[in-house]
Amino acid sequence: MYKDFFGIGESPFSIVPSARFLYLSERHREALTHMLASLSGGGGFGLLTGEVGTGKTTVLRALVARLPQETQVAIILNPALSAHDLLATICDELGVCYPDDASYKVLTDRIYQHLLANHSEGKQTLLLVDEAQHLMPDVLEQLRLLTNLETDSRKLLKVVLVGQPELQQLLQQERLRQLAQRITSRYHLLPLTAEEVDEYINYRLRAVDCLYAVFDPAMTRQIAKATNGIPRLINLVCDKAMLLACQQATHQVNKAIVSQACEEVLSWQLPTADRMKVNTGGSGSRVATWGGALILGGVLSAGLWYWQGQSLVSPVAVAPAVSEAQPSVAQPEPAAVAVAPQVQVAKPEPVVLDLAAKWQQLMEQSRSERKAMQTLYRLWGYETHLNQANCETSQRVELSCHQGKISLEQLSIINRPVIVPLQEAGKPLFYAVVYALGQDSVELLLGEERIAVSYDWLEQRWQQEYTLLWRPPLGDKTTIRYGQQGPRVVWLNQQLSLLLGEKITRDDRFDQVLLDKLRRFQRAQDLSADGIAGPRTLMVIDSALNLPGPTLQPERS
Question: What is the pLDDT of residue 164?
Fold first, then answer.
């Protein structure tokens, strides 16, 4: 309706997926890298989750486009199927013939023969399941059984599950623990940052050769705040704003137009309930509203503040170092995926940032431990209000909050994000979330940014105190001791047997055999070999089993 007014031949903010408008933010590229890595490894499952409209399907399309030619892909877009229908649908997608009255065995045998044929021809077979949160547990179990089809060296079928955050909760069910342990790569996709929203909007306008500066930076910031960085909502708001601008005969939207567009588009989308809730799907769910968390767009290191442009824009110039008091050098990694631009893109002018002032601002934004706790909950897929961002809330979402002291070496074994209090000389405490442990640096979520610091820098400001969230076995965080019996003892016995490579039994009594087994495991993990399965030991078992949840070391995800 406004195309002629703006001199464009196509609406730039259509919500219909189009390769022409493919925009991969840093997190989209990071998610794509995780998924590609999972397919090149020996695991059977990859998991990609994210809120409604964050771009999961975008990553899925980019993944398919980047697969080698010798890959046969089966895509299931409507997973509301029975286990039998799932097998039949996979056969249909792979071009496998089967009789109308085929049984489970016939369908499985036909799939197996097809997978073997692909393998003999040097082909990899990949199954992509979108909206996987709708899968029933028995269907997920059927998928796991399909990944049992393997040769001596590799899986014949690899599966990528894509879904909303409740998919993570679905995989917590006891009956799906074997599937959860087979997920070798996980990534939770979060919304765009304010900077990415600005680039996203202008990228779409450039893609249709729009000659007008329709949205200035102040307007894109307003849109980013109103939509919480959800690309689908950004499209709807921008489309409405351009329509309103056309009606008012102006080629540049103003604050009033953006406000009206947001009101008309978002008024029915946002919830009114004032309570803590899981980030569930559907148009009525509100996503995490933290500005730059989980981004590689901003890295503060060695006094350097990097603002890195996205895939089609050259990085903005880096300001010179200001002080050794700032975090140490950690160069940003190159983009994992490059997208060929459809039109020529002008390089942005260099921007020099006051890094010392920015660092002080970050510390001031991080004085609240509750805000850090909000960030930690979001990493687990939950949204909390500030007054509920505490340890007590963890019990309502089947998590457990643990506090104490720990070294970085021990933290790497537990492999879960933690809140750490930090302190610069002569200044109040500030709080960061340890998000990732690399070979040479630690990544922190601080204020509204993700930064990289050296291990020395962190240890100089940290007294080893920490707070973390974890999911205890069978929902009970209490210790498991000699002489006890019951389901938790069965669980402990089975998991230790699995980790130690011993025969798995269903003994439900904590006897001398289990005590010796537990002590062997504790010594191997550099834990106190007291023969008591306390929270620290249970968290290490949780990490060793690679159970679902955010991790510090993505290569172990």
Answer: 85
List the structure tokens of 47.
Answer: 């998991």
Residue range 366-420, pLDDT digits in tens:
899 999 998 898 888 787 888 888 888 887 777 889 898 888 888 888 889 999 9
Question: What's the pLDDT at 215?
Answer: 94
Q: Are 533 and 480 a contacting pair, CB within 8 Å?
A: yes
Alpha-carbon gap, residue 498 to 485, rounded angstroms: 19
Q: Would you list the DSSP string of 213-269?
A: --S-HHHHHHHHHHHTT-HHHHHHHHHHHHHHHHHTT-SS--HHHHHHHHHHHHTTT
CB-based contact 485:510 (threshold 8 Å): yes
Backbone angles phi, psi at 50, to 5 degrees: 175, 160
Name the least confident of 19-33, 428-442, 473-487: 19-33
Helix, strand, coil abundance in the chain, percent, nearest 5: 40, 15, 45
Query: Residue 388: which of 267, 278, 281, 284 has the closest Cα?
Result: 278
Q: What predicted TM-score, i.e. pTM, was given to this entire model?
A: 0.49
β-partners of residue 127 are 74, 159
Q: Helix, strand, or coil here: 172?
A: coil
Residue 467's nearest CA partner among 419, 502, 435, 515 is 419
Across 265-398, the runs of DSSP E, i.e. the strands, are 277-278, 298-301, 304-307, 382-383
Phi, psi (degrees; rounded to nearest 5) at 204: -65, -40
Rounded Cα distance between 390 and 199, Å, is: 35
Name the 3-class secondary structure at 431. strand
Encode pLDDT of 76-90 as tens digits: 887 777 888 889 999
* Structural contact between residues 443 and 435, judged by C-beta atoms closer than 8 angstroms: yes
pLDDT digits (tens, 9 = 90+) for 243-281: 999 999 999 999 999 999 998 888 755 433 333 333 333
Please count the CA atoms within 13 angstroms of the CA of 388 that sit on its side-chain side: 16
Residue 499 reports pLDDT greater than 80:
yes
234, 223 Cβ separation under 8 angstroms: yes
Sort strands 400-405 and 465-470 into parallel, antiparallel or unpaired.
antiparallel
Give the list of residues 6+ apart from residue 254 with CB closer than 8 angstroms, or none.
219
